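Quick check before the chapter quiz. The format below is the same one you will see on the exam, so make sure you can read both the input and the output lines.
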Amino acid sequence: MKIKKCLGIWMDHQNAHIMEFTTDPIETKTVESKFTHQEKEQTLGRSENLMHNKEQHEEADYYKELGEIIRNYNDIILFGPTDAKVELFNSLRKDHRFADIVIEIKQADKMTENQQHAFVREYFSKRLFLT
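Here is the expected output.
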């Protein structure tokens, strides 16, 4: 029997908190979008079109970086307060390399790191118990 590798990602458009589900204490790694609020202000001052173009490229790079991490897991829960999780999910579904990875989306508010860890622990404990 193949051991499932499970990953929880709390995310918004600026940050993704990556948490591997393990029996050890869960550790959080953070991936940040390169498109910051300050950068948005600067590019918007020059041109709105330029700002949107730059934002799309930076967002695509952010999702690509997350996709490279996700490729190493079998079961993923994406959760967070914004639509970023849905946008990431949609971009992953277009790529055949993610076809065999189970990805679920859950709406969640802003959470502390401990709340995120508890969410991931509870989510995967229930899933693994049911399978």
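If your answer matched, good. DSSP finds four helices and five strands in the chain.
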